[in-house]
Amino acid sequence: MRRQVELRDYYRSKRMEWRRGRTVQRVERPTRLDRARRLGYHAKQGFVVVRVKVSRGGLRKKAPTLGRRQKRTGISKIKRGKSMQKIAEERGERKYRNLKLLGSYYVGEDGRYKWFECVFVDPCHPSIKNSHEIQRRIG
């Protein structure tokens, strides 16, 4: 019981740190090693793990400047066309253009944000070029 309380407090403090951090933040090692390894992560050069922050909740568009009926403005109650995880992957890819995405997984959420970790690999790195298993994965 005590360990559960300690872990809960630990992860709460981590989420508070993440909230103050950047939207796309490179991390030294994966938060969930089991999940990262299932995606193909190895602790060697050429692999990069990035934590991406995505805002929770529905989308809101800017109010149109030209006149129309209020009913047709379409500002609130707009649904996302993609999953939050897909949005996180795209943000990571936009920041690290030279890397290939292996996959991503959920790491946490609070009232305002959801965080995902994306595993990238550098296809030009010598240790990756020499690994046939990784080459098969990234194509």
What distance separates the N and C termini? 46 Å
Q: So, CATH architecture?
A: 3-Layer(aba) Sandwich
Sketch the topology as an H/E string, one letter per element.
Answer: HEHEHEEHH
Strands side by side in the biggest sheet:
1-2-4-3
Counting DSSP E segments of at least 2 residues, the number of strands comes to 4
For the residues shown, what is the average pLDDT?
91
CATH class: Alpha Beta
- Secondary-structure-based class equals alpha+beta
What is the CATH homology-level superfamily? Ribosomal protein L15
What would a concise description of this structure say?
The chain has 139 residues and is an alpha+beta fold. Helices cover 35% and strands 23% of the residues. The chain has 5 helices and 4 strands.
Characteristic terms for this protein:
139 residues, alpha+beta, Ribosomal protein L15e, four-stranded antiparallel beta sheet, 5 helices, 23% strand, flat
Structure notes:
The chain has a single domain (22-138), classed as Ribosomal protein L15e, CATH 3.40.1120.10. The protein contains five helices and four strands. The chain has helices spanning 2-20, 33-39, 84-95, 126-129, 132-138; strands at 24-27, 47-55, 100-109, 113-121. It is an alpha+beta fold. The chain has a four-stranded antiparallel beta sheet, sandwiched between helices. A hairpin with a 3-residue loop joins strand 3 (100-109) and strand 4. Helices cover 35% and strands 23% of the residues. The longest helix has 19 residues, at 2-20.
List the helices and strands and how they pair.
Layout: H1 2-20, E1 24-27, H2 33-39, E2 47-55, H3 84-95, E3 100-109, E4 113-121, H4 126-129, H5 132-138
Antiparallel strand pairs: 1-2, 2-4, 3-4
